Amino acid sequence: MSVFIIRRLLQSIVVIWVMSLLVFGGVYLIGDPIDMLINPEADQEDIEAAIRALGLDKPIHEQYWYFLANALKGDLGKSFIFSEPALQLILARAPATMELAIVASLMSIMLGIPLGMWAGLKPDSIAGKSIMTGSILGFSLPSFWVGILFIMLFAVMLGVLPAGGRGPTTEFLGLQVSFLSAKGLSHILLPAVNLALFKLSLVIRLSRAGTQEVIHQDYIKFARAKGLSERRIILVHVLKNILIPVVTVIGLEFGSVIAFAVVTETVFAWPGMGKLIIESIDQLDRPVIVAYLMIIVFMFIVINLLVDILYSILDPRVRLQDIRA
Amino acid sequence: MKNIFTALVAGAALMAASGAVAQEIRIGIAQEPSSIDPHFHNLGPNNGFLSHIYERMVEQDSKQRLRPGLAVSWKPISETVWEFKLRKGVKWHDGSPFTADDVVFTAERAVNVPNSPSSFGTYLKGKTFTKIDDYTVHVSTPKPYPLMVTEMSTIMIISKKNAQGAQTKDFNLGPAAIGTGPYKFVKWQKGDVIEFARNDDYWGGRPKWSKVILKPISSAPTRVAALLAGDVDMIDGVPTADIETLKGNPKVKLSQGISNRVIYLHLDQKRDNSPFVTDKNGNPMDKNPLKDVRVRKAISKLINRPAIVEKVMEGIAIPAGQLVSETFFGNTPNLKPEAFDPAAAKKLLGEAGWGDGFGLTIHGPNNRYINDAKIAEAIAQMLTRGGIVTKVVTMPKNVYFKRASRGGPENSPEFSFILVGWGSGTGEASSPLKSLLTTYDKSKGHGASNRGRHSNPKMDALVVQALATVDDAKRKTLLQKATEVGIGEDQGIIPLHYQVNTWATRPGLRYDARTDERTLAMDIKVVK
Questions:
Q1: A77 in contact with B at a CB cutoff of 8 Å?
Q2: pTM of the prediction?
Q3: Which CATH superfamily is A88-322 part of?
Q4: pLDDT > 70? residue B19
Q5: What DSSP element (H or E) covers B476?
Q6: Which of the ends of chain A has fewer CB neighbours closer than 10 A, N or C?
Q7: Complex ipTM above 0.95?
Q8: Which residues of B135-153 are buried (b: 16+ CB within 10 A; e: fewer)?
Q9: Which of B449, B451, B453 would you mutate first to test chain A, the one with the most A CBs within 10 A?
Q10: What are the residue boundaries of the structural domains of chain A, listed by start?
């Protein structure tokens, strides 16, 4: 197993390197931020000085080489806009995004599994049908639109929840978090639900399909014949067996929740990494864009690895092996 | 419905109560500054929001007229030396006194900020600052320099005691962020909140708000919703599409004002085979009709400015005939917005030998100015109707601006016919004349943003003369003449309209709309 993990990590370095090359080249092709950053009153000399200050006067391969050499030392460059280390800038925003993603994931699990099982056990009931119809909405409505609708409804019309922002934070294990105070919770509720919606639908569908498959299997019939209570059958025998696909998907989706919190964060003015990356792309802040994508790729790799390991624990039939192309 | 109403009343009552006790003002802002260091980045949001903390020797009021700031008076004492008398009794936020040493220190520091993406060297180069006594500073230049006072209204003064050796991060974290302004820096959580607290010892009297809280909300619908929900007391950058609905909403008051930003068109007047000028069927030509002033005039006459203002801008803009609007220094009364006149345009095109028309592509950004892409589309339709078959290409600003300024061979402008805007930060006409219309010349620093490469030695001479004339009345005449030549005679650029900016507040407040687009707590008035 350790060989497996080591080889996976080595592969990930190659992936990250290729990614940095692609993003670096891509952003270079789009242009540079000088013409947006410079004061319009600057003359040619000032413009050239600014280009030099950001190191953009050098040829692209030299810029990349410089970046690579520093990256190996753990320095991913300084933001063009903020003149602060890109990594530090992103990591400072990470807790906000992680908190949002975790709350959203918990919501989708805690609501999604029971709802999905209900729909699977009673597929023809009104409740079962409504759950499934609802999940179609969760899948198909664009999340920025739902977000704005939430704001209009809960913040503007009902006035019960704030329209955006993170609100006051409290310190928890050295990090600033919102979920410990009532006011903070009221701020996180709407964006978390907005972000959870898609995943919730996914979990509902997976749990329902799993339940319907499992419920007809022999061991369930056997359990019934043995006279076990319905409660025990569902909560132990069914639940355990539908968890495998759910865990896989939730694991993989956790990465995408973080990566795609971009929309929710922008709509709710949530000060996380997603809002930062959108603003950085808008202003072509290359060091931040490259560093952010490297972090995201790394995160996906780690999550994939963890899911594989977890999978082998949940399902003893699975053995960790290298996938060779 | 009844429930909603109760909730609204309760919310309003709560808001009123908290407002009365705390005297806090919370503002939802579209664009966040990139630093608390006042010399790191010479650009709009920074220069605006940091005015809460720091002050300049000369300030610009809401109409960008100059008024005394940290200097009480100024005068030229010789052709090349200006004397500034500083205000006495001003204290820094840490209690230490403000003196001439701070001004001299600022002038040295502001040009040497590492990694600055836009340096204040633009305004400081060639100037030597000398302390005469604690409250007198002399600034000398190699040549007579009439824009001295105007340019001093751009440099925020920092405290020598607190900022010596400080780096940009020392400002962002707070220790060096010591100013003389009406509000003290409290904290900046990037992307989340910027907080200022009242400076009780402010020399200009006790400021109104105990706390100023700026919340960056980049998404426009969210910003509007935050105001409607009572999360903030005021927002800037109200989208034009929402203005009609907000007007009828009793929970919102709008404040509007003309800005210093003119939206205009550049036309390629240099290349004979301009890449985006074609014949009617889209084939390249070896002759460039845009080089003929009659064609440029005809294009201007084909544009129906009132229609653009009415239909595209929803009435929120003012047709423009030159670079700066009436209240600004250098505006000439002789240039009015060009009237829509297709018949005259047709005649001019015929005289120029282009009666059959030709093909053109207009390039523009789609996320920089208010309704920019829609304006470009409207213009293309108007020109096509007049026989100039025009295609539209718009793109995000991060792609557009580099290509528009130096996307072509040898860093020349790539496009032939473009839509751009210019905000006159100095509040007078010389800076746009120099940047947009004088002959492109790197060694002189002329025409840095002249993306159409208009060139007329007669106009160049007028601008150069104006930039060396200290006498205000004479300089004004020269700037007016230069504008009349560059736009009136040459049609070097085609002005479209001046942008109008909109702020929205909760009832009980009014914003004194600033022409420089800044959003400042000092300009928020409480009304009954």
A1: no
A2: 0.85
A3: MetI-like (1.10.3720.10)
A4: no
A5: helix B472-483
A6: C
A7: no
A8: bebbbbbeeebbbbbbbbb
A9: B449
A10: 2-71, 88-322
